[in-house]
Write a structure and sequence with these properties.
The protein has 2 helices and 30 strands. With about 550 residues, the protein is mainly β. The longest helix is centred in the last third of the chain and has 8 residues. It is globular, with a radius of gyration of 23 Å.
Length: about 550
């Protein structure tokens, strides 16, 4: 389902939090192909929403490839599913997905053992490739001169039992226009506004209103679709750690080469207002697989330079590599800071390797995949719409090396196990293990049961985490979830023990085509005081 936790509550400001997105890259499907495609409906924070869900043959963890003009531009992972909708993490971006793009995926309802595909299951995409290089259903081109997007209304209530109450009403709107006025122009807008009231203990009430603009830009391109210029607030996914900026981006995209150049300013970090405090510019060059290749790969290099208040801020070069085929996925990135000015005066070396990331996933048996990697990035930009003890646990122990195994493509069963050696501030050499299992698509109600156990220990501190969840579809348009968990931490150095438990429930209801309602409730208990949270949302995509 699309849990309400993934719908923007305007907690989705840019946070320097850890991410484990690439660590869980799914291995390729060992069965015969059952390709399908669905449209991209919207982008929200770091999530991409696709008009396909459980009833269309998707499962959590599946990989989707976003196609534009016959070429792959992004790889996604299905994170939360509704009956006919999916909220997806981004695994790899060659270009930012847009509403109207088509996402190809494997329809698991039609999977057969290795051998001939079901009649009519495979077609031909313009590029001749689909998921894992197999032929895919024809791509439907987006209509001309049409606006697409999403409008959402949300309400959040958090009661901390005597310590205060927070209520928040929010409206968000995302609009994507293609071929405006019949011209080669696209327009993107992503605006969110909220009104927050705080009722604190003692009868003190305060209120705050806030509007943030995450994207507002227009793109022009030539008739062949090889040259693009984008003006306004945007992102540059190919430029390493560059995130939102206000400025101009010029790109040239060819059959084997892509390149780009940007110049702009970083927005004010709290309210995302216009600012000229940090000015930056950069460029990249990318070499990728030929059209029709059964494997997808790219090698990107470039550099970024920024100045703050007229002085050197950060200059760095970067290299990125990505590869995926029928059974192997690799991802690697490296940034190297070039120190000058006041940094050199303070004794910094001319070149400082920073932000190394490596990730690999390989199918070692028909139903068994192995994965591993290394991450020493100091900070990772991530949109967090909802923070739970489980996400906090994973974020805390992100940095380090890991290895794991996963069982996949077994009817009604998925399982995995991971080991990690982490290094975090004030606590060095922390070892973590995690084991998870899920039984899904049981009986007519599409029952799913999932559980996870994790433990982290080191330097006199041990943390245990247990998470469980249940899901079912009592009606074709209704999905229900129940879940919860416990976390306990023992600090033998200071003799301190603390624990917390939580329970949650949520409902996802498809009212009519492209209209959705979400309701959720969470009860949280820790050593201080219990808290309760109620969240509701109503959204419509068009």
């Amino acid at each position: 389902m699309i849990s309400p936790r993934m719908v923007p509550k305007d907690r989705a400001t840019i946070c320097l939090l850890a991410t484990l997105t690439l660590c869980g890259l799914a291995a390729a499907n060992p069965c015969a192909s059952a390709p399908a495609s669905a449209g991209v409906s919207q982008l929200s924070g770091g999530m991409v929403y696709v008009e396909a869900g459980r009833k269309d043959g998707l499962l959590e963890g599946d990989t989707l490839i976003v196609i534009r003009a016959g070429m792959p531009v992004a790889w996604l992972r299905a994170a939360y599913l509704a009956s006919h909708r999916a909220a997806c993490d981004t695994l790899r971006l060659l270009s930012l997905p847009k509403a109207g793009d088509m996402a190809q995926f494997t329809d698991r309802r039609l999977l057969t053992p290795a051998g001939p595909a079901l009649p009519g299951a495979a077609g031909a995409s313009p590029s001749g490739t689909g998921i894992n290089g197999v032929s895919a259903a024809p791509i439907r081109k987006p209509s001309l001169s049409r606006l697409k997007g999403r409008v959402g209304l949300t309400y959040l209530l958090v009661d901390t039992d005597g310590r205060g109450r927070l209520s928040q009403a929010a409206v968000d709107a995302r609009v994507f226009g293609t071929h405006l006025w019949g011209a080669p122009l696209d327009w993107t807008a992503d605006v969110r506004t909220r009104r927050v009231s705080y009722d604190r203990a003692g009868g003190v009430t305060t209120a705050e209103g806030l509007t943030r603009v995450y994207r507002f830009n227009m793109s022009g391109y030539d008739a062949s679709g090889h040259y693009f210029v984008t003006l306004g607030r945007q992102t540059a996914s190919a430029l390493a750690s560059v995130s939102i900026f206000d400025g101009a981006l010029a790109e040239a995209r060819g059959r084997r080469w892509n390149s780009g150049l940007f110049v702009g300013a970083q927005p004010e970090p709290t309210r995302l207002g216009l600012s000229s405090d940090i000015m930056e510019m950069g460029a990249y060059v990318e070499y990728h697989q030929p059209e029709g290749s059964e494997s997808h790969w790219s090698l990107t290099g470039g550099g970024v330079s920024s100045r703050q208040a007229g002085s050197a801020n950060r200059d760095f070069t970067f290299a990125q590599f990505y590869y995926t085929d029928g059974g192997l996925s690799l991802s690697a990135s490296q940034e190297i800071d070039v120190n000058r000015g006041w940094k050199r005066d303070l004794g910094e070396p001319l070149l400082s390797p920073t932000s190394t990331f490596l990730s690999a996933s390989a199918r070692v048996a028909p139903h068994l995949s192995a994965r591993g990697g290394y991450d020493n990035r100091r900070n990772v930009r991530l949109y967090r719409d909802y923070i739970t003890p489980e996400t906090a646990f994973d974020d805390r122990f992100r940095r380090g090396a890991w290895a794991g195994l996963s069982l996949e493509q077994i009817p009604h069963l998925r399982a995995g196990a991971d080991l990690r050696h982490s290094s975090i501030a004030a606590i060095e050499n922390v070892n973590t293990w995690a084991a998870s299992a899920e039984i899904y698509q049981l009986w007519m109600l599409n029952l799913a049961v999932r559980a996870r156990l994790s433990r982290a220990s080191g330097a006199g501190i041990a943390t245990n985490l247990a998470v469980y969840g249940f899901g079912l579809d009592p009606l074709p348009v209704l999905h229900l979830e129940l879940g919860g968990g416990t976390r306990s931490t023992a600090n033998t150095l200071f003799g301190i023990n603390d624990s917390e438990t939580w329970q949650s429930g949520s409902m996802d209801l498809s009212l009519v085509r492209r209209a959705y309602m979400n309701l959720s409730f969470e009860s949280h208990h820790d050593g201080l005081a219990p808290s309760k949270q109620v969240y509701s949302s109503l959204s419509w995509t068009y």
